[in-house]
Amino acid sequence: MGTVYAIANQKGGVGKTTTAVNLAACVAEAGYDSLLVDIDPQCNATLGLGITKNAPQTVYEVLTGEASFEDIIIGSDVDNLAVAPAGPDLAGATVELPREAGSETKLRDVLEPVRDRYAFVFLDCPPSLGPLTVNALVAADRVIVPVQAEYFALEGLAGLLDTLSLVQRELNPRLTIGGMLLTMHDGRTRLAQDVEREVREHFPELVFDTVIPRNVRIGEAPSFGKPVIHHDPHCAGADAYFELAKEVAARG
Fold first, then answer.
1. pLDDT in tens, 105-131
2. Do 149 and 196 touch, CB atoms closer than 8 A?
3. Checking CA distances to 11, which of 34, 124, 127, 183 falls within 20 to 30 Å?
4. How many beta carbons lie within 10 A of that of residue 232, not counting itself?
5. DSSP assignment, residue 214?
């Protein structure tokens, strides 16, 4: 049975989508059938793999019951990586979902028929703790939390951990933290070193050994509609995401 990972942090700009796209691509390149589900109305994971955000059917239609995952899943330029694209209309789901009783389990229920086809499923969450992110946390087995190596990194983590505890207790007892990932790390600065030390001291068992560096190639890759491992396979960013993929696979 495949493992479902939510990539979540309510703070924006911490590298959630970059991590979802590149981790999914690296795992797929290693030969594992993988599925990337974009549940962010900004559609950045969809665009980051060169797929238009104007697909006729998206995750929104799945959540509203107008389509199934089988209907919307499309291939990508990365071998073994399939995508369930997002569209801007997904923003409507944040208003519509809470009106339905039991809507927190909607994504889990609709994902169930296809999850066994993939060794790994990655859910790219929006930068909030709203209905879409809660749905992802209920559908997931594990959550990966990107943490930017900046001053406010630990701000907001407490809120996220409280939400995770609530979801574990009320909706998804099998949910665990797959790991915290330090992103946008500039090892030359005292600030990045201090943040890394503090995060590792607070969460010694949870932080991945791999650190994602600040890297121009990682930032460029989405404008080419490619993961960084296809844009520049030998850059420091590509190396880091390959190392992360090994860690994620090793943690099971």
1. 999 999 999 999 999 999 999 998 899
2. yes
3. 34
4. 18
5. P
Dihedral sign from CA coordinates of 135, 139, 142, 144: negative
Report the b/e string of 45-72 with b at 16+ CB within 10 A. bbbbbbbebebebbbbbbbeeebebeeb
In Å, what is the CA distance from 167 to each residue of 22, 138, 182? Answer: 27, 7, 24
Phi-psi region of 179 (alpha: psi -120 to 50; beta: other; left: phi over 0): left
Return the amino acid letter for 248.
V
Structure tokens that stand for 179 in this block? 């790991």
User: Which amino acid is present at 191?
Assistant: L
Q: Are 135 and 39 in contact (CB under 8 A)?
A: yes
Strand arrangement of the beta sheet that strand 3-7 belongs to:
74-75, 81-84, 34-38, 120-124, 3-7, 142-148, 176-185, 207-213
